Every structure is written in C-alpha cells, then in structure tokens.
C-alpha cells in the first residue's frame, strides 16, 4: 500500500527511530536519511531531543485503542508545532513540509514524524503496530497488500508459529 509522502516515508522514519534505540547523533542521522528524510545534520543537542521524541513515538505504535492513539498523535502534533510549509530545496519541485527548512534538526524530525503518523492514522490506523511476538518491541508500518501484518519480520512470525505448532502437537500426544 502506498501512502502520501507524510504517511509513508515519515511514518517509516518514526518507526525506524523507535526501533533504533539509543544512538549517537551520527547514527540517528544515518537512520533518518536511510528511511527517506533529507536531513543533512543533527547536533548532539538535537539528537537528545530526537531520542526523547522516539520514546513518545513508541507509545503511539504500542497503543491499541484508536481514541487514545489519536490523542497521543494530537499531542505530538501540538508539541511539534506542525504547520504546513511549502518547501523548494535541493532542486526539488515545491512540496509540503511541516517545518521550515531553516528549523533545527530535532524540530524538523518532530514535525515530519508527527505529521506522518497523523496522516497514517487518518488513512488507515491499522497499518501501524508493534510486533505480536512476546518479548519483541519492534514497531512497523504495514505496507502489505492485505494490511494484516502482526509481526515485525518473518523470523518473529515463524518463531511464534513453530511454538504454537509444537504446543498443539504436545497437547495432542498427551
């Protein structure tokens, strides 16, 4: 499934930041750029803000109740001070940003990810989640065709399914 740029790439950046865990400014910048955001620098001060922000993003992915999830995203939007801004940078045609190109790195990340989660939540809230494998805290944006993803990876899904199979087999032989 394809989302608009904010619901797609921005939501993926949000998930990547949550899954990255503690990281240096350089590592966070690498993660942000690898998942589609064209940020060129991130100071140590900004990195600390992004790490704190990632913890709040994690709450959104982990929340199962749609109303509470919407409330969490609304708080992110308010705290990010998101507002539409038409940007024309790096030779790209005009496109929508939720923070000025001149804003600090952390503010741009906050606005981008809050906007992305808001779009995703409005388009299809079931497309964001946390791995259903016990003990796995990886979050994801579900871009599968049928939108029924429950696990972060094939490895986690297989682990759960094999354990369930073994449990059924043991109960049949008992």
TrEMBL record:
Pfam families the UniProt entry points to: zf-CGNR
InterPro entries reported in the protein's UniProt record: ABATE (IPR010852), ABATE_dom_sf (IPR023286), Znf_CGNR (IPR021005)
Domain Zinc finger CGNR: 127-168
Protein name listed in UniProt: CGNR zinc finger domain-containing protein
Source organism: Amycolatopsis alkalitolerans
């Amino acid at each position: 499934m394809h989302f608009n740029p904010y619901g797609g790439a921005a939501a993926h950046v949000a998930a990547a930041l949550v899954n990255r865990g503690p990281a240096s400014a350089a590592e966070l910048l690498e993660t942000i750029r690898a998942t589609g955001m064209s940020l060129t620098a991130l100071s140590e001060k900004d990195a600390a803000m992004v790490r704190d922000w990632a913890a709040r993003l994690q709450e959104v992915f982990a929340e199962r109740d749609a109303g509470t999830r919407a409330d969490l995203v609304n708080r992110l939007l308010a705290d990010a001070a998101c507002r539409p801004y038409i940007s024309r940078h790096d030779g790209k045609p005009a496109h929508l940003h939720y923070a000025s190109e001149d804003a600090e790195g952390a503010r741009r990340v906050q606005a981008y990810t809050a906007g992305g989660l808001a779009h995703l939540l409005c388009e299809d809230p079931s497309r964001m989640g946390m791995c259903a494998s016990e003990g796995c805290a990886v979050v994801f944006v579900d871009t599968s065709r049928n939108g029924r993803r429950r696990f972060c990876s094939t490895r986690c899904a297989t682990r759960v399914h094999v354990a369930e199979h073994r449990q059924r087999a043991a109960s049949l032989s008992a």
